[in-house]
Amino acid sequence: MVVGTIKTLIIGTSGMLGSDLCKVFPDAVKLTHRDLDIKNREQVIESILEIKPDIVINAAAYTDVDGCEDNKELAFQTNGYGPGYIAEGCAKVSAKFVHFSTDYVFDGSKKEYLETDVPDPINVYGHSKLLGEKEIIEKMHDYMIVRISWLFGVHGKNFVETVLRLSREIDTVKVVNDQFGKPTYALDLATKIKEIIELNPGIYHITNDGICSWYEFASSIIDNTVPCTSEEFPRKAKRPKYSVLVNTKTEPMRHWNEALKEYLKERNA
Length: 269
Ligand SMILES: NC(=O)c1ccc[n+]([C@@H]2O[C@H](COP(=O)([O-])OP(=O)(O)OC[C@H]3O[C@@H](n4cnc5c(N)ncnc54)[C@H](OP(=O)(O)O)[C@@H]3O)[C@@H](O)[C@H]2O)c1
Fold this sequence. Notes:
The chain is of the alpha/beta class. The chain has helices spanning 16-24, 41-51, 65-70, 72-93, 124-139, 159-169, 186-196, 214-219, 256-268, and strands spanning 8-11, 29-31, 55-58, 96-102, 112-113, 143-148, 151-152, 173-176, 180-181, 184-185, 202-205, 212-213, 225-228, 244-245.
């Protein structure tokens, strides 16, 4: 299959990852939330039957981790059943389906997670994303479920922007130093998806290289940050302490610190 000659459909194109996927797949058919609501089974299947794509990439999701605790139904409809509807549509037209899941499907009791580790989420967002994985696996075979983590990109609200804003607004920015993960640059990820799209179906863990705490991540962005514990910074949704995804299937990507430098340059350009 030669990617340039095949028809790709991207869903959720106005989000952070969706926007960078559009850069990397400029010829794709692009659908925003306004064009298609993935909660609507009929609309999803009709759109896919009409477009007849060879590949569907879904970047649409309800990504407000704390918001999911209050809006459980919306979380499960969007992150759980929605991907299942897309999978049904893909099966009908024999399209490959690339979908994104999260490090938050794991409980964080292990330091590192392989693709084969058994998920056990500790918050509603994680449960809803895990349901999405299960719905896809049940409904089709030619899927790539790509678990990613700590995403930052020029087209969305993200941790880097939040700490930059706080750094201007307050004297010292407290950031948790007891949750560890792998920051990932959305453009690197989108580029990687194009590279690996012809690989075998299955679950993939794809992140930038390098592990850090949120505090360590913040320290490489701003000067006025101090470490704190998760107990000092309570959130509505529980977060896993370690959500380090290990990629055993593809070539590693560059270190997050290098990607961060490029991001900071890009956002200031
Ligand atoms: N951000 C992270 O740190 C992170 C970490 C791990 C995994 N992920 C996963 O990576 C993927 C991309 O995340 P992201 O950060 O790029 O998300 P994002 O910036 O929040 O974008 C999500 C997009 O989905 C759209 N959307 C929401 N509900 C929809 C619906 N019912 N139908 C169609 N579109 C809908 C949103 O549109 P509106 O804004 O118009 O509603 C938005 O454009 C998601 O699957 C997410 O779970 C993200």
